[in-house]
């Protein structure tokens, strides 16, 4: 059986969503990164980078959430397409959306000191991501067209918590419609329920 090592995080949510979409049997192994469990030698033996999520696929421990999504989609046959556009969106998520939304979260929710300049820089870029995705979704249902795909799953979690980051989607009607559609999927609620009621997800 597959094992997902994860916690109440953006990148763990992506993998839960796909495992449930593909109806895969798996065990969820919580690694409490707020209590430092990612530094335990037993976990470091699994992922020397000390990060979640990690997916044990029965043979090896896979790391990097978007790579896990791609491998799992390929092996399960879920939404499989040889589509350079889909790969590009996964890279966009990992290199642009993720890091800048992550910095906005840091400077708004976690930092002990304030840094308005850093916050403004990352918030401007995050707002640019919102605008870009909104325009992209103006003439298609999902990120890669008519079919829900791992590109949607990868981009969903940060947008789902936009309120907590002080980012507004008020001017992003197409993106809001997309977000609502994904939130309404039973699997999305099921995936979020792994984190418990205290979670912002
Ligand atoms: N690029 C990695 C990022 C993984 C990552 O940063 N995980 C965070 C939680 S979302 C983590 O484990 N942080 C623990 C730490 O840095 O000590 C992915 O997409 O899987």
TrEMBL record:
Similarity comment: Belongs to the GST superfamily.
A family per Pfam: GST_C
Domain GST C-terminal as annotated: residue spans: 79-201
PANTHER family (UniProt xref): GLUTATHIONE S-TRANSFERASE-RELATED, HYPOTHETICAL GLUTATHIONE S-TRANSFERASE LIKE PROTEIN
Coiled-coil stretches: none
Source organism, top-level taxon: Bacteria
InterPro entries, sorted: Glutathione-S-Trfase_C-like (IPR010987), Glutathione-S-Trfase_C_sf (IPR036282), Glutathione_S-Trfase (IPR040079), Glutathione_S-Trfase_N (IPR004045), GST_C (IPR004046), Thioredoxin-like_sf (IPR036249)
Range of residues in the leader sequence: none
SUPFAM superfamilies xref list: GST C-terminal domain-like, Thioredoxin-like
Name of this chain's protein: Glutathione S-transferase family protein
Location of the GST N-terminal domain: 1-80
